Amino acid sequence: MSTRDRLVESTRELLRERGYTGTSPKAIQQRADAGQGSMYHHFAGKQDLALAAIERNNEEMTAVAERELSAPGTPYERIEAWLRREREILRGCPMGVLAQDPEIVGSDDLRSPVAGHFEWLRGRLRDVLAEGDLDVRLADTLMAVLQGGYVLARAANDTRPFEDAIEGAVGLLERAAAG
Amino acid sequence: MSTRDRLVESTRELLRERGYTGTSPKAIQQRADAGQGSMYHHFAGKQDLALAAIERNNEEMTAVAERELSAPGTPYERIEAWLRREREILRGCPMGVLAQDPEIVGSDDLRSPVAGHFEWLRGRLRDVLAEGDLDVRLADTLMAVLQGGYVLARAANDTRPFEDAIEGAVGLLERAAAG
């Protein structure tokens, strides 16, 4: 990996583990095994690093969700596959944890790319729901089940609340899809 | 308000606005208009203040939810009233924001009382769901819809994702309750 890539990957890890407020440029340098001069050669500072990390999160997460949502199968089956995908629950959602960080929510520059990912996902889910004649507001309901599932699991330090939240939602959706 | 109460209320506000990591003892003193000596007379430090703030959150939130969940009406109606209660959406859930704070999740002393509130709510919702012959795992689904709704609303800086998430969930629950 290039130094630039190591810096971006280290920033992604630290944002997920410690949030934006809890991540210092020095911690990023240490994690990436990069010097201060090298870091400032590639990035203007912590915000610039965070924007690159969010952009890479967005690319990866969009590609994974798109595979599930555009796979063969009924709308219900595609959404079920997306909901039930294995996730690193106790690490939290890479995007969701950022939406809870007061410094990110307080800065339009940092908040906008996080919002952009959820907007894309909302639109994509609404298309699939509409295809199945389901209430398109369920896009937000189902995204919220995932995001809130992470919150409850992290509070409990146990994956069970996440798993129960998903299975409860799948049951409701199945019933709605059956008409 | 007594100095002790002002310190606890100021801690509650700051935890909700800036998280645990982003809140300093100095900021609490300034918000409470209390001196350092006075703060350390009442509390051993930031963790002790946070524990008192979480305890007061818990008391208030438990009382409000209990009113809705033990009101007259069918299980569906009581859960609907709880879901649709007016909330200060863009400020985030006082408990949920703490479950996203890396320093709180990383400390069993701080995480446990947050987990305890959600455990109480889960048990209470499960009782009401069981009374209505509904899947008790929906307790976590519905708690997650609320917590995730806050996350999506804060990411978007707009209350709409929260509102859509709730209305989608109410529609699914109504259908399930109708049998």
UniProtKB/TrEMBL annotation, chains A, B:
- The answer to whether the entry has keyword S-adenosyl-L-methionine is no
One GO MF term: DNA binding
Q: Which residues form a coiled coil?
A: none
Which Pfam families does this entry report, sorted A to Z?
TetR_C_13_2, TetR_N
The UniProt record lists the keyword DNA-binding: yes
Binding region for DNA: 24-43
Domain HTH tetR-type, residue spans: 1-61
Per the record, the domain of life is Bacteria
* PANTHER family with a match to the protein in the record: HTH-TYPE TRANSCRIPTIONAL REGULATOR LMRA (PTHR47506:SF3), TRANSCRIPTIONAL REGULATORY PROTEIN (PTHR47506)
- Which protein are we looking at? AcrR family transcriptional regulator
User: Which organism does this sequence originate in?
Assistant: Kutzneria buriramensis
